[in-house]
Each structure stands twice: as structure tokens, then as C-alpha cells.
């Protein structure tokens, strides 16, 4: 009689109430049936209380939080242009997700020039981790210039981050925290994360090891750009991943030595707590054309077939280096403004 053990303290009074109703009713079949029915419904709702509340509101269970690795990989390949190394992002998440007892939280650091798809990839990740995507209560995005703009408030921010991470991970171990523009964060603020991403089984009873922390920044962009220009000049293509293999190694070395890098002097780096560095490469014309076409298809369907429109938008975008013009200097970032401008002018 499981009903009368664990949840007995709720069920017993209900049961007695139902009995009382049954016997105090004038024993007409209708009221008997309705009393019996309400007793059953009440008992069922108590036994399945958790499942019921998960049915109506987001909870940490599988029906709301479940990683779709295949879907994520496919979406990245279809939507994020020019990033042959991005598979490492889905691999890292998959490995961590499948591990029921990871040794520590997953910490990913995404680096690259602006407009290359870092934020976009993270949004796609949210869509494939949480049923509610980026609107999930377990997905947290902080932007340095919005949330942590004043370096004199370092201590306040550190307390906030500490409290938010603690509070949210205690609600759901599989929470995701994204810190955008970490190169613009007050120096050493990220150090507050160290205990949460270190090899601790738990801190005050809370296990942080299933959480995911993602850092986004432009640091390392010059290195990535320089290396890509060299490869391009010597006729190598980014899809030849043997050229790319050394990239994350170069990047992590660079992050350690770059004086301007937010991570350089951080405790996370010094204690090797960043699980992976993932480079985002500058975009070439064809990639930007892909972005422009996607945008037209999604937001300006009336103009998708228009001749020259894509070329006119491309002409508005700066490419570097000056003579060879290999790479869009803002990646796919400004295409919405530029397309609207071109459409207005015509
Ligand atoms: C995972 O994503 C793929 C591709 O979007 C989709 O076909 C599949 O139904 C998804 N699986 C689950 C369990 O949602
Ligand atoms: C969870 O994080 C959000 C910020 O994303 C914060 O506003 C909220 O208070 C946190 N919740 C808990 C329970 O700490
Ligand atoms: C960083 O600063 C040190 C001195 O503080 C200097 O020796 C080193 O060359 C600098 N490194 C870079 C990559 O600028
Ligand atoms: Mg950005």
C-alpha cells in the first residue's frame, strides 16, 4: 500500500473526506459516483503531482530539457556558414551530456571576429537543449556591456553571479550560463566561477558538474585572421581540416599569452578549467551570400528572386585585407541594415 506510506499524510485525510461524503450522501447513485470520482481524481493528482506540474510548466525533466545531438549538428551545418571546426562544439556538449557523472562542469570558450556566428551557434544550442529554447528558465545569457558595465561594481557583480549560479543550479543541474563579450568584463570577474567549474563533487550539497558555461569573445581574432589570410594566400581551403587541426592549440596558447585577453590572468585559465577553445573563422564572400539569402528568405520573401540584390548588399560590406578582400570584416553582422538600406534606395 504505497499510497498510504510516503504520501499517506496527504492521502489519509482525503480518503476520510471521501468516505464521509459517500456515507453522508443520501446514497443516491449519482452523488456516490461523483464522490468516488473526486476521491480518485484527488488521489491521482497527489501521486502524480510532479508529473502534472511538469506538464503545465517548464521543469528540469526530460520532457523540457533534453539534448538533441543530431538535430544540433544538422542545424549548425545548415545555418552557421564557414565554420569547419564547429563540430567540436556539438561533440563537447554531447560528451558532457551523455556522461551521467562528469568530473566537472563543461566550460567552452568561443573566440573569433565579430559576425562569425558565436552568438548564433549558442542560440541554436539552446534550441536543441531546451524545449523552450533561449526562453528556457534554465538558459542564462549575460552580456558584459549590458549586465556588468562598471568595473567599480566588481564586487556587486561577483556576488550576483555567485548567487545566480548557485540558485539556478540548485533548481536544475543542467543549466546553461553564457557570458558574452567576456573581453569587456571587469577584470577578474570571471574568477567568481572557479569553484563552480572546478573538480568538486558538490559545494554545500549542490552538484555543479552537469552545468555548462560558455564564454564568447573577440579575443584571438587577430591571430585567427592572420592565420586565415596566410592559408588563403597559399591557396589552402578552410574545408581542408588538416590545416585547421592546429588552430585550437594556437588559440589556447594565444589566450594564455595575450596581455589584453580577459582570460589570461584568470584563475579559470591558470587552473586549466576551460574544457575547450573553439575558434570561429572570418567569413568569405560565399558565406556572406549564404547569410544574405537566408535573411531574404526568412524576412523579405517578396525580394528573394530579385536580380542583383545580393550583389548590391555585398558591395556595401567592407572586406579585408584591402588589396585581396578575402574576408568580410563584420562577418554576417551588418547584413540586415545593409539589405534594408539597399531595398530603401531602390
Ligand atoms: C532531433 O532533431 C531532428 C532534426 O531536427 C529531428 O528530426 C528529430 O525529431 C529530433 N529528435 C527529437 C527526439 O526531438
Ligand atoms: C537565476 O538567474 C537569473 C538571471 O538569469 C536571476 O535573475 C535569478 O534570480 C536566478 N534564480 C535564482 C533562483 O537564483
Ligand atoms: C605582454 O606583456 C609583457 C610584459 O608585461 C611583454 O613582455 C609581452 O611581450 C607582452 N605580450 C604580448 C603578446 O603583447
Ligand atoms: Mg557578439
From TrEMBL:
Residues 1-27 form the signal peptide. InterPro entries: AAA+_ATPase (IPR003593), ClpA/B (IPR001270), P-loop_NTPase (IPR027417), TOR1A_C (IPR049337), Torsin (IPR010448). Residues 104-235 form the AAA+ ATPase domain. Transmembrane segments: none annotated. Coiled coil: none annotated. One of its GO terms (molecular function) is ATP hydrolysis activity. It comes from the Eukaryota. One of its GO terms (biological process) is cellular response to misfolded protein. Keywords: Signal. GO terms for cellular component: cytoplasm; endomembrane system. Belongs to the ClpA/ClpB family. Torsin subfamily. This is AAA+ ATPase domain-containing protein. It comes from Macrostomum lignano.
